[in-house]
C-alpha cells in the first residue's frame, strides 16, 4: 500500500519513512501543504498521515480537499494539537483517525493497519485458496509453507490478494506498491512478479493477461 506523509519536521519524516518502509509500505513525503495538494492530485494513495500545522496552509484544508475529490483515501491526522475542539474538528473535517504527538510508532502502525483493513472486510488475515497473508505480522504462507518475501514481493502479492480474479495492470501495481521515485519505464514490476512466482513454486497462480497485466487465480 502507498502512503503519503505530510509533515514539516524533517527528523520525524525520516523516521516515519524508514519505519513505514520496513513495514512494507511505499512512502511519499510532502513537507508543506502546496506540495501535498499537488501530489494528491497526481498520485493515488491508500492512506495519508497528515499534520495540521504546515507551511503554506493547514491540514484541515488539505483534508477537505481530499474528501472533496472523493477518492476514498484514508486520513490519519498526526499532530501536537491535543485540544478537544481540534480533535473534534479534525474528525468532522473528514479524518478517519486522530493521533496526538508524541506517539509510539507501534501504535501508529496499528492504526494504519486498522484503517486499511476496512478495505478487506475488517480482517488482518487474507486468504485466497491456500495462500494466506497475516498483515499484522507480515507473514505469508502457501499450503502451510512459510514464504520469505521481499517488501516489494509482499506488496505485490498483498495487492493482488485484495483483488482475486481481477486483472491488475503493471501501472496500477507501480502506483500502489512503489513510491514516487520509481521509474515508470522500468521493468521492475515484471521482475518482481517473476521472482514472486518462483517463490510460490506454483505455476499459473499468478496469471499474465497479455497486454493487460496480472491476475491472481481464484480457487476453483
On the 0 to 100 scale, the average pLDDT is 89
Query: Counting H and I runs of at least 4 residues, what is the number of helices?
Result: 8
CATH domain class of the largest domain: Alpha Beta
Radius of gyration: 18 Å
CATH architecture of the largest domain: 3-Layer(aba) Sandwich
GO molecular function: phosphorelay response regulator activity; transcription cis-regulatory region binding
InterPro entries: CheY-like_superfamily, OmpR/PhoB-type_DNA-bd, Sig_transdc_resp-reg_C-effctor, Sig_transdc_resp-reg_receiver, WalR-like, WH-like_DNA-bd_sf
Domain Response regulatory: 2-116
Modified residues (4-aspartylphosphate): 51
Task: Write a structural description.
- The structure is a single chain.
- With 220 residues, the protein is α/β, with parallel strands linked by helices.
- The chain folds into two domains: 2-117, Rossmann fold; 125-216, Winged helix-like DNA-binding domain superfamily/Winged helix DNA-binding domain (Arc Repressor Mutant, subunit A).
- The chain has eight helices and 13 strands.
- The strands form four sheets. A five-stranded parallel beta sheet has the order 2-1-3-6-7, with helices on both faces.
- α6 packs across α8 (188-200).
- Residues 123-218 bind DNA.
Amino acid at each position: 500500500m502507498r502512503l503519503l506523509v505530510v509533515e514539516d519536521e524533517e527528523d520525524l519524516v525520516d523516521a516515519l519513512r524508514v519505519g513505514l518502509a520496513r513495514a512494507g509500505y511505499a512512502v511519499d513525503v510532502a513537507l508543506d501543504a502546496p506540495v501535498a495538494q499537488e501530489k494528491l492530485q497526481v498520485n493515488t494513495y491508500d492512506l495519508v498521515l497528515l499534520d495540521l500545522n504546515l507551511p503554506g496552509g493547514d491540514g484541515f484544508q488539505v483534508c477537505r480537499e481530499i474528501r472533496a475529490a472523493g477518492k476514498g483515501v484514508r486520513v490519519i491526522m498526526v499532530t501536537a494539537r491535543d485540544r478537544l475542539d481540534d480533535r473534534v474538528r479534525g474528525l468532522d473535517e473528514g479524518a478517519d483517525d486522530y493521533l496526538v504527538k508524541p506517539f509510539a510508532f507501534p501504535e501508529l502502525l496499528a492504526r494504519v493497519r486498522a484503517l486499511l483493513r476496512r478495505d478487506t472486510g475488517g480482517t488482518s488475515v487474507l486468504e485466497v485458496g491456500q495462500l494466506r497473508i497475516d498483515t499484522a505480522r507480515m507473514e505469508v504462507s502457501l499450503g502451510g509453507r512459510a514464504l520469505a518475501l521481499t517488501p516489494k514481493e509482499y506488496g505485490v502479492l498483498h495487492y493482488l490478494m485484495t483483488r482475486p480474479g481481477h486483472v491488475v495492470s503493471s501501472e496500477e501495481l507501480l502506483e500502489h506498491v512503489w513510491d514516487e521515485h520509481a521509474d515508470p519505464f522500468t521493468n521492475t514490476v515484471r521482475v518482481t512478479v517473476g521472482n514472486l512466482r518462483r517463490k510460490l513454486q506454483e505455476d499459473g497462480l499468478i496469471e499474465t493477461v497479455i497486454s493487460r497485466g496480472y491476475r491472481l487465480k481464484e480457487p476453483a
